[in-house]
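Write out the 3D structure for:
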Amino acid sequence: GLHFGIRKLQSLGFATLFVGLLQAFSMFALGHWMCRLWGLPDPQALFLGAALSASATSVVVKTLEDFQLKRHRFAEKVMGILVVEDCFAIFITLLNSEAVSRKHSLA
């Protein structure tokens, strides 16, 4: 996903951003909820929720390459969705680590 620039994402349209955010948030919320259900504290539940929201971008890219589908328009949209999901996961992980470090510095 590193070759995907902002302009490339913009050219794929709003639907790509919407689907990526919806899927990432859904997996994050489900992962967080499951962890809380199992009794994990919030920092761990947030981290695992973010990990679940991250996609297996390299696996998808390799599959698209193996089937020689990487140049198709739908493959570009799939890659855009994966980039959005990965950015979401990174953002949530950064927020979580910042919150945990603040909590420990106040203690």
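The mean pLDDT is 86.
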